[in-house]
Amino acid sequence: MLVSKKSLKSVSLSFLLCSLYSLCEYDNLFKELNLKNDIFLNVNREDIMINDSEMFNKLYQLSNKKSLRRFVFRLLQPLFSQNDRPSLRIGREDDSDIILFKRYLRKFRYTYYLYFSDQNEQSETRLTEKEINMAAVNMLFLLIGI
Predict the structure, then answer these.
(1) 63-96 in b/e burial notation, b at 16+ Cβ within 10 A?
(2) pTM of the predicted model, to two decimals?
(3) Which residue has the higher pLDDT, 46 or 5?
């Protein structure tokens, strides 16, 4: 299957880091990486990171953890089963999945505003809350490989 270069460039490193930080902020990667100082927006509004192969290796390992992928798949369950679910019968288990998903979105927005919105305001690009939520969901799909 061929992947176009345009789709690869559309993956934002800041959104990926924001998603990973929202999901597992206590990982060793984030103990060593300073999100405010180690990520920059260049002239073309693309993310660049200080050139450190060890950090990229840790980022790769974190994004490919099996436990993380399972958790992300669980987070996305309300989106997968939305059409199959009867509207009158929603059990506690379904509610907990929806609550987990909403918490992730809230934490992603908080992390984005805390670490990455300053950089985007300097580049005159202000994202709406809907765009931030869409980026959060896109990163979840990217992490599970869909």
Answers:
(1) bebeebeebbeebbebeeeeeeeeeeeeeeeeee
(2) 0.75
(3) 46
